[in-house]
Amino acid sequence: MAVNNLLAQSNVKIDSNKVWKSFVLQVGGGFGSYTTTVHIKPPALSGSVKRYSPVGMVRLLWYPSYRLRMGFETGYTDFYSYKVRNAGKEGSLHLSAVPLLFVFSMQIVRRVNVYAGLGAYLETTHLDYDGSVTSKALVLGTNIALSYTYPFSSKLSIVAEAEWMNAYDSKDAALNLQAKLAWRFLRWQ
Amino acid sequence: MIIPAFAFLFFSCQKKYEVLMPDTTTWSIFNDPAALPLLPASRPAMEGVYTLSKGNDIFGDQAAIKWSHTSKGSDTTYHVSGFFGKDIAYFICEGKQLNGSILFNGYWRKMVSTETGIVHLTISAANGAALLLGANPVVTPGSIVIDGFFGNGSENPGRSITLSYTRKLNNTPASFQIAAHRSGGRTSDLLPVSENSVAMILKTQEFGSTGVEVDVRFTKDGIPILYHDNTLNLREVQKSGLVGPIENYTYDQLSTFVRLVHGEKIPTLREALDAVVYQTQLQFVWLDTKYTSSIAPIHAIQLEYIQKAAAIGRQLDIVIGLPGKEQFNQFLNLPDYKNVPSLCELGAAESDQINAKIWAPRFTEGTQNELVADEHLKGRKVYVWTIDEPAFITSFINEGHFDGMLSNFPSCVAYNYYVHQ
């Protein structure tokens, strides 16, 4: 009672509407840049590293009645690739990753959200040199992202996002710029 | 709270520990063109247990001093190592004689930390150099006094150290093996060379090792190589873009794309054994089978190198290590397996079954002196693995009756074995 009186005397507007809870699916893609050092070893191998590549992501978020949202993120990113020549042999190496991250999100100002995730990256080497090899490893990692959301309707929004992926176990990291469609496919009070 | 916590986790850096090898090339007296190699008799004569009267606050009260050497063709390189009782400290130096004195130049290191630095030591003519450089030196307590200085990092050494000869090195049991893990030491212990490399095999005698345990795996094309972990990872190799199990790649692929942490190639088992046989004085090789397929290819290489060692007059034991039941069962498939030199990490009964040359119980089983005595009666040696805690190393050497000990810190085992009375 004392709280309600206090609020009534203040300028705080009491919102009597119930808060909507929902699930939101974000799907998008963009462009990624590998940000950590690539040394082609040994240096005698000639080649140039390709650090830029398209990326894609899917993120499922639960918007509860409180501000902290949480969910799961996956997708696909090419970390880097390079071609080599060594003693007359040619080949190529290509490292990609699928993030498998639990993410938390929070709106910090209107339409602007931050994301932080913790989990793993399923890294895959595609090596074509002296035969072809595809080899996978699961490494621990995190991500952090900042997004701007522009709503089209109560269900659909378009999102621009900058995300930094960090597979810290393997010292692989990438900065991704993406456009996404956010679909509030389920909501309830 | 959670977002900042994640941001902190994301942006915070792991503390990077490193040991920068000090520059040991700057001691002008040691670099004097008139400085000559030591006489062959001088080196073994000065080996012994020394008492520290200065520097003991840093290194402890005693040191075991021992020489080792490696060969490449007609070139032989000698190093003198001092193993201390405090903080798994050691020094490794080269020696020369100049104007009747003996000089030692090198570095010291503590394995419990990243502390290291330059060490300059001298035996003056009056303090034993005249004796050591004479014909047939006979050393008695107090007849050698080593004086010198040590410093931190690459700074000019300024702190005093004095060591006085006390007694001969312990050699009981005479065949005791100081076996170093991962071909001589772990990369994670910030050593100057990588684990399971040829460079480590050539270095490990300086740490006191008389034998090595090497980790054997197979590449996709069936080449036995040395590598410890299941997968390529940054603990063992530099970033290359190759991930996943090492068995997924051919030797040519690994040799082309992958380098160990300090830049060495992943060696083949043959390259490793070539180094052991032709370049070191190591007496024992433990082929730790990190795979579960046939033992036969390893056995063929084992026989080949036992014969090569014998052909040049080397006493070298090469045993196939059997860490688990799967390897044990594969071993039983070898024809005449009872005559194949092996080391069994399973029980004494399994060691009996295959007539293992060595039984190797885990240190957590304790000293097991009665069981060890039983195995000795059967003519079997007993090595204990893998002990890294200095207090355990001390008690297992003082209270146990083992014939060998596997450790990541061979310098600690060496100290405890050589000073044991």
Write a brief structural summary.
The complex is a heterodimer of chains A (189) and B (421). Chain A has 189 residues and is mainly β.
Query: What CATH architecture of chain A do you see?
Result: Beta Barrel
Strand-pairing-aware structural class of chain A? mainly beta
Largest sheet of chain B: 8 strands, antiparallel, barrel
How far do the termini of chain A sit from each other?
Answer: 25 Å
The total of beta strands of chain B comes to: 19
Which band does the percent of strand residues of chain B land in?
25-35%
Oligomer: heterodimer
Q: Round the mean pLDDT of chain B to the nearest integer and report it.
A: 95
- From the spread of the alpha carbons, the general shape of chain B counts as globular
Order of the strands making up the biggest sheet of chain B? 1-2-3-4-5-6-7-8
CATH superfamily label of the largest domain in chain B: Phosphatidylinositol (PI) phosphodiesterase
* Structural shape of chain A: elongated
CATH topology of chain A: Porin
**Biggest sheet character of chain A:** 8 strands, antiparallel, barrel
| Helix/strand structural class of chain B | alpha/beta
Describe this structure in words.
The complex is a heterodimer of chains A (189) and B (421). Chain A has 189 residues and is mainly β. Chain A has a single domain, classed as Porin, CATH 2.40.160.20. Helix content of chain A is 4%, strand content 70%. Chain A is built from 1 helix and 9 strands, in the order αβββββββββ. An 8-stranded antiparallel barrel of chain A has the order 1-3-4-5-6-7-8-9. The model of chain A has no long low-confidence stretch (mean pLDDT 89). Chain B has 2 domains: 126 residues; 243 residues, Alpha-Beta Barrel (TIM Barrel). Chain B is globular and about 65 Å long. By secondary structure, chain B is α/β, with parallel strands linked by helices. The N and C termini of chain B lie far apart (60 Å). The mean pLDDT of chain B is 95. In chain B, the strands form 3 sheets. An 8-stranded antiparallel barrel of chain B has the order 1-2-3-4-5-6-7-8. An 8-stranded parallel β-barrel of chain B has the order 9-10-14-15-16-17-18-19, surrounded by 4 helices.
